[in-house]
Write a structure and sequence with these properties.
The complex is a heterodimer. Chain A is mostly helical. Chain A is about 60% helix and about 5% strand. Chain A has one domain. Chain A has helices at about 1-40, 60-70, 80-95, 140-160, 165-195, 200-210, 220-225, 225-240, 250-255, 265-290, 315-345, 355-380; strands at about 105-110, 110-115, 120-125, 130, 210-215, 215-220, 300, 300-305, 310. Chain A has a three-stranded antiparallel β-sheet with strand order 7-8-9. Chain A has a two-stranded antiparallel ribbon with strand order 1-4. In chain A, about 40% of the residues are buried. Chain B is an alpha+beta fold. The chains are: A mainly alpha, B alpha+beta. The interface of A and B includes residues 344 and 348 of A.
């Protein structure tokens, strides 16, 4: 019973307290405010709470109310059933993937010791690891995340087909074609990382990234696999269907792609799931390449740098401080990557569709295979 | 004529540096990022935001801005206009309607009994001001022509236009 309750609390906090909050705030802060700042504008500031504009945040509440009050239009001769469930099919995978994202190491009921002689591995002495900071402890978490991320395209394709509109159909086709071409290089770019860390468990992966090269350089994914980081970031951008890869909803060519025929809250869900997918890709990049919850040189039993070891505020207090530092680091990394993705969106023009395909199949795929090959070679020699 | 000459323009070849996109993308990102952080500066003076927050902050118009018409006054507060019809004649939009009447004062030949400007038709060209021989009509009130819900509201008659008016520097009779 306590287990179930704990899971429910974790789901509520992570999915609704963090992901949905960030995703819905991003509709305003990321898209409208950030673009305004980049383009020397002010952006929305007219919706107010008791006379305070609060950086425009009331606008997203106003948008939500507007969306709810809009008429829900279903096009004639569309497949009503599929048209209705498609937003759900897009929305749910964007949230389910969070099950495996670790926000912090497992909680240790005993005392944590860091072993510098064993590459700074943390062990739990006199207690056991309790999984309090990720929804699910899953041995093949990475595969799960990938499977879920790939499923979300079915929603887009179904939405495109069920709308009975040419533009929607083209959008759906585009999104599935783009998905396939980027999923391949995404997976292959990660194969090198998997070879180095030797695990599919995301939390294990983050733990391994606390290891040090020569006592000072943290073994983050971006350090050991810089090319893979770059490839994964690009493929991730393409996978979330955001600019410069927002071909599925290329408004100058196919109106709004697969969401052309959606209105009211269905439209809002489609949009929101796109933002949630952005946050999810940011979390995956943070976990795999940027050390997840790791803060360099900060360990559960104090700060270790080279041969020095400090324990500020005493052992027990420091454990809690390190927990908060690490959760903060994870959240910060996710937010930074989301910010970076929005930055890319407002910097780069949209690709042409054949350029997207060329990039996916002719550039990213060979590069990721080369990366895999070189990594394997280096690992075999070492 | 006849022979069409073809001028070949060489394409600018992209170097490998540009073709790899990455440095160029980073350059673009650095531009947008610098704008982003500059406009987050807590000191609002240092931001480079060009938006005018119009209803809250009224923009100062330049001195020679052409706005709502006004009819200037004589020293004794009467309308300065002598109903010479120059303005209504030159008006390309045909928006000035004047009916002249005889003035009691023998030194003043005519005055407008009716002077109506249809501000919906006015194209704000300023020709009436140019045409006026006695500095009676001006467009320097510094106001917009106000929006109106009814057509009638856009007909500005003599008294309304005189409310905006003031004394002219020019003296009647051509002397300053």
């Amino acid at each position: 019973m306590a287990e179930i309750l704990l899971s429910v609390v974790k789901i509520a906090v992570i999915v609704f307290g963090f992901v949905m909050l960030v995703a819905s705030l991003m509709t305003l802060l990321g898209d409208r405010k950030q673009s305004a700042k980049i383009q020397n504008r002010i952006g929305p500031n007219q919706a107010r709470f008791f006379g305070f504009s609060l950086a425009g945040i009331p606008h997203f509440l106003a948008d939500g109310i507007k969306m709810i009050l809009k008429e829900n239009v279903t096009p004639a001769q569309s497949n009503k059933f599929l048209h209705t469930i498609a937003p759900g099919l897009v929305f749910v995978p964007a949230l389910v993937g969070w099950a495996v994202v670790p926000f912090m190491d497992h909680y240790c009921t005993g005392t944590v010791q860091t072993l510098p002689q064993m590459n700074y591995t943390e062990v739990c002495v006199g207690g056991e690891w309790k999984n309090y900071f990720s929804i699910m402890h899953f041995n093949s978490g990475l595969l799960f995340a990938f499977a879920i991320a790939a499923v979300s395209v079915y929603g887009a394709a179904i939405a495109g087909w069920a709308s009975n509109s040419k533009f929607s159909l083209l959008g759906g086709l585009r999104s599935s074609a783009q998905m396939i071409s980027y999923e391949v290089s995404m997976g292959l770019s990660l194969a090198g990382v998997l070879m180095i860390y030797g695990t599919l468990n995301l939390n294990e992966m983050v733990r391994m990234q606390g290891n040090m090269f020569g006592d000072w350089l943290p073994m983050w994914g971006v350090v050991v696999q810089p090319l893979a980081f770059f490839l994964f970031f690009l493929a991730g951008l393409a996978e979330t269907k955001r600019a410069p890869f927002d071909l599925p909803e290329d408004e100058s060519v196919i109106v709004a792609g697969y969401i052309t025929e959606y209105s009211s809250m269905k439209f809002a869900m489609m949009q929101l799931s796109e933002y949630a997918a952005t946050v999810f890709i940011a979390a995956l990049i943070a976990v795999i390449f940027l050390g997840g919850w790791q803060v360099p040189y900060v360990y559960a039993d104090g700060i270790r740098f080279l041969d020095n070891h400090w324990v500020p505020f005493g052992e027990d207090a420091w454990y809690w401080i390190s927990i908060f530092l690490r959760i903060g680091a994870m959240v910060f990394k996710i937010l930074f990557l989301v910010w970076l993705q929005f930055m890319m969106r407002w910097t780069l023009p949209r690709f042409r569709y054949d350029q997207v395909m060329t990039l996916g199949w002719k550039i990213l795929l060979p590069l990721s295979i080369a990366n895999l090959f070189v990594t394997a070679l280096v690992l075999a020699i070492l | 004529m006849g022979n069409v000459t073809v001028k070949n323009v060489d394409r600018i070849k992209q170097t490998l540096w540009e073709k790899s996109y990455i440095p160029e993308i980073l350059r673009g990102l650095s531009v947008t990022t610098s704008h982003f952080f500059r406009n987050l500066n807590p000191n609002k003076e240092k931001r480079t935001i060009f938006t005018r927050e119009y209803p809250e902050v009224i923009t100062e118009y330049p001195e020679r801005y052409r706005g709502l018409h006004r009819l200037m006054l004589r020293d004794d507060g009467q309308v300065r206009c002598v109903a010479c019809m120059c303005c209504s004649t030159i008006c390309p939009a045909d928006c000035i309607h004047i009916e002249a009447g005889e003035h009691d004062d023998p030194t003043i030949e005519k005055y407008p009994t009716v002077f109506v400007i249809d501000e919906l038709r006015c194209i704000v060209c300023g020709l009436c001001v140019e045409a006026c021989p006695c500095d009676a009509i001006r467009m320097d009130s510094g106001r917009h022509i106000p929006p109106s819900l009814e057509r009638d509201e856009a007909f500005f008659d003599r008294d309304l236009l005189m409310e905006l008016g003031g004394l002219s520097e020019a003296k009647q009779g051509g002397q300053r």
